[in-house]
Amino acid sequence: MKVAVAIAVVAACVAASLSASITHAPDFAAVGAKVEVVRDIIGEAFNKIKDIANNDNAAVGSDISSQLDAAAVKANAVLERINAAIGAGNLTAGQAQDLFTELTDILTGVFKDLSK
């Protein structure tokens, strides 16, 4: 249960950091900074959740760690696509919003999987 709550908190933090809709040409530096903040939130939170899960039950913790590692790979792939578009100077507002939505969906999926 602690893990499900922790995932919900992570999803809420990421959603809060992305809550302002991108409705104009993005400020590449600001979006890039947000990408790094989101990466830090996910990394730190996933590590803390792994610690909680492993302390509660090592066998279950191992399974949860595997699920979080897989989600982290997916999340980092999305963040790298954002960074690539920023680097190329062609990130549109629509692309940015779609990629941040995809990231939120990944976190929501982890929450649903771990809440079962």
TrEMBL record:
Name of the featured protein: Uncharacterized protein
Organism: Orchesella cincta (Springtail)
Keywords carried by this UniProt record: Signal
Extent of the signal sequence: 1-19
Domain of life of the source: Eukaryota
